[in-house]
Design goal:
mainly beta, about 160 residues, five-stranded antiparallel beta sheet, globular, three-stranded antiparallel beta sheet
Length: about 160
C-alpha cells in the first residue's frame, strides 16, 4: 500500500531545511600585486597555475539552532587542493577542524589520510597502505555541531588550476 503523505512530508522537510540554511559558494581568483593579495570574484578565465579561493558562506535563517550542519566545498576536477589552505572554523568558542575526502565525498577524515592499494612486489600482488596526497583530495568539510539562529559563517579553501 502506498503512502503518498509520507513523501509529501519528506519533501516539505527538505523545502523547510533549504529555506532555513542559506549557502553561497563563490570562486575568487587570487593574484599578488605589489606584494598584496587581490581577489577577482567569479573569474571568467583561468590558466594552469592560477590559484582559486572558494568561499562558502552559510547563514541560519531558521527560527532556531540547526544541528550537525555539514559545510562542504568540492574540489573541482580541473584543480587540486592547495595544502594547508583550509583553516579551522571558530564558532561559539569551539574550533571545528576541516575534514578531507579523497573518494568523492563518501568518507571523510583528518590528515594524514590513508588508502589501500594493490601493487606487485617480487612477482606477487600485495595490498599496501599509502598516505593520500593533499592533491588527491576531492572534498573539504566542516561538520558544525550547532549553528545558532541568525549565525553566519564563512569557510574557504584554495585550489590550483591544473
Amino acid at each position: 500500500m502506498r503512502r503518498p503523505w509520507i513523501w509529501l512530508g519528506f519533501l516539505a522537510l527538505l523545502v523547510a531545511l533549504a529555506q532555513a540554511l542559506s549557502l553561497d559558494l563563490r570562486p575568487y581568483l587570487v593574484r599578488v600585486l605589489e606584494g598584496k593579495e587581490v581577489y577577482e570574484e567569479n573569474p571568467v578565465a583561468v590558466k594552469p597555475g592560477d590559484v582559486l579561493e572558494w568561499r562558502l558562506v552559510a547563514e541560519n535563517r531558521s527560527q532556531g539552532a540547526l544541528r550537525q550542519v555539514a559545510l562542504v566545498i568540492p574540489v573541482p576536477k580541473e584543480t587540486h587542493y592547495l595544502d594547508g589552505s583550509a583553516k579551522p572554523l571558530t564558532l561559539s568558542g569551539s574550533t571545528i577542524r576541516p575534514e578531507f575526502s579523497f573518494d568523492g565525498g563518501r568518507t571523510y577524515g583528518f590528515p594524514p589520510l590513508k588508502k589501500r592499494v594493490r601493487v606487485v612486489e617480487n612477482g606477487k600482488e600485495v595490498e599496501k597502505e599509502m598516505e593520500v596526497k593533499p592533491e588527491e583530495y576531492t572534498h573539504v568539510r566542516w561538520l558544525v555541531p550547532e549553528l545558532p539562529k541568525g549565525a553566519k559563517v564563512q569557510v574557504s579553501v584554495r585550489t590550483v588550476v591544473k
